[in-house]
Design brief:
179 residues; mainly alpha; Arc Repressor Mutant, subunit A; 3-stranded antiparallel sheet; 3 strands; 47% helix
């Protein structure tokens, strides 16, 4: 059975919230605007679960018309450790992959839903990249590659949004295969 931290991550709505604030601070209102398909009560319940679980934290409070608006940020790099995943059964792992992949499919659906019916879609021009390659790597080479990929992503995550930068979600999965 995965730890409570793993259960927090391996939930489709909470995974979307974590992704949304992975590189920026956001209020609950901003998170809601980026996820209009999620009912507000559901969204707030999941934001609270992430805050109570220590995955996100309130980093600023703003007074807005007699109420306090919280600004949220991640407490660290959003990742799970061996310890967090210890005890997962095969069924737990399959559920984790299903959650992760369904979130990826939801992202793809939202991208496509943003395109008018009948209009030609330009995946490459829009910056969509889908790649799958088989690599032969030692454990050390795999670890090193993943560290470099994460470093590149974290560096790009420091970019501030502006009129030239369009929001992108980067997803990658590395799975070992026994030949």
């Amino acid at each position: 059975m995965p730890t409570s931290k793993a259960n927090l991550f391996l939930h489709p709505i909470r995974l979307r919230i974590i992704t949304a604030i992975s590189t920026q601070r956001m209020t609950a209102k901003q998170i809601a605007q980026s996820m209009p398909d999620i009912p507000l009560t559901t969204l707030y319940r999941n934001i609270n679960a992430l805050a109570e679980g220590g995955i996100i934290q309130v980093v600023e409070e703003n007074q807005v018309r007699g109420t306090v608006e919280h600004v949220y940020a991640l407490t660290g790099i959003p990742s799970l450790t061996d310890e967090d995943l210890r005890g997962m059964s095969k069924a737990d792992c399959e559920q984790a992959f299903t959650t992760y992949l369904s979130t990826l499919m939801s992202d793809a659906r939202r991208y496509l839903d943003g395109k008018p019916d009948g209009e030609e879609i330009h995946l490459i021009q829009d910056g969509v990249v889908v790649s799958r390659i088989e690599l032969f790597l030692s454990q050390e080479e795999n670890r090193s590659m993943n560290e470099r990929i994460q470093q590149i992503i974290l560096e790009a995550g420091q970019n501030e949004p502006d009129h030239l930068r369009k929001r992108h979600v980067v997803t990658y999965v590395v799975i070992p295969f026994d030949s």
